[in-house]
Write a structure and sequence with these properties.
The protein is an alpha/beta fold and 567 residues long. Helix content is 40%, strand content 15%. The chain has three domains: 5-170, Thiamin diphosphate (ThDP)-binding fold, Pyr/PP domains (Rossmann fold), CATH 3.40.50; 201-354, TPP-binding domain (Rossmann fold), CATH 3.40.50.1220; 375-544, Rossmann fold, CATH 3.40.50.970. The strands form three sheets. It has a six-stranded parallel beta sheet with strand order 2-1-3-4-6-5, sandwiched between helices. A six-stranded parallel beta sheet has the order 13-12-14-15-17-16, sandwiched between helices. Helix 3 runs parallel beside helix 5 (86-95), helix 8 (227-241) packs parallel to helix 11 (330-339) and helix 12 (348-370) runs antiparallel to helix 22 (546-564). The longest helix is centred in the middle third of the chain and has 23 residues, at 348-370.
Length: 567
């Protein structure tokens, strides 16, 4: 072992992270972070990735962590490099994604004295991290203290509410190892038992009684990365009660399953007068706030009793409609589902929703099948083409809303991801690239403005060797603004300049200049053909007529209203 205490401490730290379960580190080049960079690059069991731009690096790490469920390490130098992590850390905080953020820093004696590349990094991410610690300057006596820090960082990031942690590392020069260093011999990892959450039996019985006494109820599953863990508990509750399931695509629960009535077109149904005649007595909610705005407005209007299972005590209830907050996860829901008396023989309530959903689907398909390619048809077609071996990443703005509205329930257990914590359009290509390096063929559905936000992420993913199809919906601007009231009250030139902001980019020239495969899909048949193959990194541009798209969305809503009026 080298006598270089700095590298000894870094190596001890990195080895413990590997032993705990960390498999990926994303490194951005820099001088002050040299000890961390060299150490992680040589740590067995950890795959290192290089991203020049720290914003792209952080969103890339976010994508890996979303799909793997394990913390990902971020390493950067001091100064504004650390600042560029903030957008992705904000998203990770709000969507409960584990990251271990390591920022290099100047030693205390150089701060506030005009040293280059030095900013205030103490608590730079505020309350967006679960834990912050400024680490001490190293010496020979405290090397194995860093093993404890590593174990704590890992366990905190995956705790009852997963999320990012931030460790700020001060380094004095020289930053290079003073001699050859070797990694420490593998030492047993520090064992930490996972906490469990259970409700008292009498509380379980009380909640079960509320559910049993409601003849009409629904289950709502919002966005969550842990949806697969909730699957059995949610399915059991739906089967025993006959309650229909309104599942956000990002819940990982929106797929067809036996004896579970998955309502695919609830976004459309809840806009209709039919929905006001189908108000439940009780709502069971799991996951984050749903993407579906009509669902939120409908719940606010009718105020049914709502029981939310919230294991991390997030209080994620922006409409203030939750009446009962239950601080347990899927295990607690499963225990309650087992207590609930089986009423599945009475399917009249659930069948009422199924009939409306079927009619809405037939109405939507009749229109989409008879008209030219549009964003709703694209969202529908993606679901039809994906298999269980695929993953779908969805950008915010219109793509995630169209996926929510038009993605049909299928038996394929493909996973769907999106950055719905802060719901920004930045860093989406980088996040999808992070998802793709997990080995699944990944499709990214993204609009033209979000695409432009992360061209650096597109460049960075060229050398990843992953199968990533970027489906670029080009309506030359922010089409979602056309659906907002501002579109009706603002002069057209001002509206275009400050809201839709058309850029008029030639995406063909841009993408090809980067050496990336480029295709165009002007119609549904060409899109189908392109989606059937997966081969490396490519961009498929689909031109979107914004005026037609807006008109079709509105006609679809009106058609579903008309079709369900008599139910």
């Amino acid at each position: 072992m080298s006598e270089d205490s700095v590298y000894q401490a870094c190596a001890t730290f990195a080895m413990e992270l590997a032993n705990q379960g960390v498999a990926h580190a994303v490194i951005s080049p820099g001088s002050r972070s040299t000890p961390l960079t060299l150490t992680f690059a040589q740590t067995p069991g950890i795959t290192t990735w290089t991203r020049l731009d720290e914003r792209s690096a952080a969103f890339f790490a976010l994508g890996i962590a979303k799909t793997s469920g394990e913390p990902v390490v971020l390493v950067c130098t001091s100064g504004t490099a650390a600042s560029n992590y903030l957008p992705a850390i904000t998203e990770a905080n709000l969507s409960d994604i584990p990251l271990i953020v390591l920022t290099a820093n100047r030693p205390p004696e150089l701060r506030d004295w005009g040293a280059a590349q030095t900013i205030t990094q103490t608590n730079i991410y505020g309350d967006n991290v679960r834990w912050f610690e400024e680490l001490p300057i190293f010496d020979k006596s405290n090397a194995f203290w860093f093993q404890r820090v590593a174990a704590r960082a890992y366990q905190t990031s995956i705790g009852s509410r997963p999320g990012p942690v931030h460790l700020d590392w001060p380094f004095r020069e020289p930053l290079e190892p003073v001699s050859d260093f070797s990694l420490p011999e593998n030492t047993p990892k520090i064992g930490v038992a996972n906490p469990t959450q259970r409700l008292a039996p009498e509380v379980n019985n009380e909640i079960a009684a509320v559910i049993e006494n409601a003849s009409q109820g629904i289950v709502i599953a919002g966005p969550m990365n842990q949806g697969s863990q909730w699957h059995d508990a949610v399915a059991l509750l739906c089967k025993r009660t006959g309650f229909p399931l309104l599942a956000d695509p990002l819940s990982q629960l929106r797929f067809a399953q036996e004896d579970v009535q998955v309502i695919t077109h609830h976004d459309h149904l809840l806009r209709t007068s039919w929905a006001d005649r189908a108000v439940p007595e009780v709502v069971i909610r799991v996951g984050g706030p749903p993407t579906c705005k009509p669902l939120r407005l409908w719940l606010e209007r009718h105020q049914p009793r709502m029981i939310m299972f919230d294991p991390a005590n997030t209080w994620a209830d922006p409409s203030f409609t939750v009446t009962d907050l239950v601080p347990v996860g899927h295990e607690g829901l499963g225990e309650i589902a087992l207590i609930v008396q089986d009423r599945v023989s009475d399917r009249s309530w659930g069948q009422r929703w199924v009939n409306a959903d079927t009619l809405a689907g037939e109405t939507i398909n009749e229109i989409l099948d008879s008209e030219r390619l549009s964003q709703p048809a694209i969202a529908r077609e993606i679901g039809r083409q994906l298999s269980a071996s695929d993953a779908l990443y969805v950008s915010n703005s219109m793509p995630v809303r169209d996926i929510d509205s038009f993605l049909e329930a299928d038996t394929s257990l493909y996973r769907i991801f999106g950055n719905r914590g802060a719901s920004g359009i930045d860093g989406v290509i980088s996040s999808a690239a992070g998802a793709a390096v997990q080995g699944k063929a990944t499709t990214l559905l993204i609009g033209d403005l979000a695409f432009q936000h992360d061209i650096g992420g597109l460049i960075a993913t060229k050398n990843d060797g992953s199968d990533l199809t970027i489906l670029l919906l080009d309506d030359n601007g922010g089409g979602i603004f056309n659906y907002l009231p501002i579109a009706q009250v603002t002069e057209s030139q001002l509206f275009s300049e400050f809201f839709t902001t058309p850029q008029g980019l030639n995406f063909s020239e841009l993408v090809k200049s980067l050496g990336i495969a480029y295709h165009e899909a002007p119609d549904l048949n060409s899109l189908k053909d392109l989606l059937k193959t997966r081969n490396g990194l490519r961009v498929i541009r689909v031109p979107i007529d914004s005026s037609f798209d807006i008109d079709q969305h509105r006609r679809l809503a009106a058609a579903v209203e008309e079709a369900t009026a008599g139910l």
